[in-house]
Amino acid sequence: MKTKIYYLTRSYYPYQKGGGPLMRTGAVKYLKELGWDVIVVMPNYDTKEFKIEDDIWQIPFKGKHIQKLASLFERVGIYEDYLDKWLDYVLKYLKNKISKEDMIFATSGGELGMIKLGSLLQEKIECKFVVNFRDPLNYGYMNGLRRDKKPHIGRIKTHEKYIQNANLIITSSKYYADTLKRQFSNLADKIHNNYFGYIKEIDLSQYKKQLSDKLRIAYAGMMSSTQKPELLYEAYKKLNSSDVELYFIGNRKNYKPLQNIDDNNVYFIDFLPHEEFLKFMCENIDVGFVSLVNDYYGACVPSKIYEYINLGLPMLGVLPNGDGKEMINDMGFGLACSYNDICKLSENIKEMLDDKILREYKINVLDKKVEFSMEKKIKEVEILLKEIS
């Protein structure tokens, strides 16, 4: 009987937007292309229907107001995860669907819920169990650092309880893999890193770059205090150059730091569907900007880095120490500095104004482009899956 992979995820494109859902959709796509039979299991946040379409099982989850309350209960320790009530129902359903020959692949973008579900199913069924951390666990600690100042209980014991059953633990950064190996030394030989890469290689030759005498820098993504895209604007203002244009792509409606900006060289564009976004970037942008403004997130490699590699774009970044920052600087993809050094970011923008330097960064990105395709990177995951099968 052919092994099925039950891919547990809280979000999945196109049902949710953002880099995480896109990456998960890509991972499932390429696992299927390698011959794996994959069923996606996820919450249905929108309706009370149980939906099955294209090997995607959407199991009902209550409204967003309940979700906010559940997240509060998670922080104070009443729930182990905001998905706990959903898990009770899903566990009863799945335990009769999954066989011992199957495999559970539980993803985490910060939540514990899917890992908890996978662990409980593994105990009942004794099938193979894979944990895939995209981001560190919410309301936990990363090398003594925390994500924000919101009060929360310690979660290391809960964390450990549900990964103990794992046959394989995959992270998305070496930084996080090393941290987990130190925290859970008994699991060290099961922990591996895999840079997930970009989803679909773009044929850059099909797009014609619109010529400009200005350096065009774009930030695309969430407008939030986690990224603080306004740092790019502050560095640009400090540079005081009319040779630079900034583009902020995304929803700034509820993000005050990017409101009330009146500058002829600064453009704001609403969220674009992915294909339109790729086309716009290829035809109009010279440099991609990426940011994370908390040392806690040194364990994360922003998916935008892979997106920019695919687009053949040099990068400017403000990032904590970790794989993302090292990737940009050490591989010559561009210039990344500390998120609290606006003067350095301004200097880096000025350096990018040199056409020769900009071309060198672009050449480096294009030379390494094929190495960071998900189609190639997923084969590293397949080797690990076959080893535990």
Description of the molecule:
This protein is an alpha/beta fold. The protein has 13 helices and 16 strands. The strands form three sheets. It has an eight-stranded mixed beta sheet with strand order 3-4-2-1-5-6-9-10, sandwiched between helices. Strands 13-12-11-14-15-16 form a six-stranded parallel beta sheet, sandwiched between helices. The longest helix is centred in the first third of the chain and has 15 residues, at 19-33. The radius of gyration is 21 Å and the shape is globular. 42% of the residues are buried. The mean pLDDT is 92.
Low-confidence parts lasting 5 or more residues at pLDDT below 50?
none
Task: Please report which band the strand proportion falls in: under 5%, 5-15%, 15-25%, 25-35%, 35-45% or over 45%.
Answer: 15-25%
Topology, number of strands: 16
Number of helices, counting only DSSP H or I runs of 4 residues or more: 13
The major sheet is characterized as: 8 strands, mixed
Rg on CA atoms, Å: 21 Å
Q: N-to-C SSE series?
A: EHEEEHHEHEEEHEHEEHEEHEHEHEHHH
- The class by helix and strand makeup works out as alpha/beta
Record the strand order, biggest sheet.
Answer: 3-4-2-1-5-6-9-10
On the 0-100 scale, what is the average pLDDT? 92
Helical content stands at 25-40%
Span of the ends, CA to CA: 13 Å
Shape: globular
